Amino acid sequence: MSERTLHGLDFGLDHTGRMRGIDEVEQGLACKCECPECGSPLVARKGAVRVHHFAHQGESCTTGAETALHRMAKQIVADKRRLVEPGRDTPTVFRDAALPDEMYWPGRRPDVVLLTESMTLQSR
Ligand SMILES: [Zn+2]
Q1: Residue 32: domain span
Q2: I need a surface site. Which of 3, 8, 25, 103 has the fewest CB within 10 A?
Q3: pTM (predicted TM-score)
Q4: Residue 106 C-alpha to ligand 1 middle, in angstroms?
């Protein structure tokens, strides 16, 4: 496996609240994405030399790249609704999934909520 140097952010937040990969968006400010940490507009850099990435239009914040990876990971888990646990070959498939700002879960702040067939949640 080859390694690469991280330049900027791998993912940007679009106007609908979804994380987008660099290959999903147009180049430059036309990507219409922002940093999920600081809200700064992002520029999609898709040149011929460096690995394609998002960069802050202005000054970079220090934790945007980590926040972008975290939010994208949560989105993938929620979208796929399946996990392969260590030591198992087959994935567990969940009935539904949601990100925490869509859920009421007293005393907890989950990254993502996965519901099995027997689980129910209280509504507010
Ligand atoms: Zn930022």
Answers
A1: 11-68
A2: 3
A3: 0.79
A4: 30
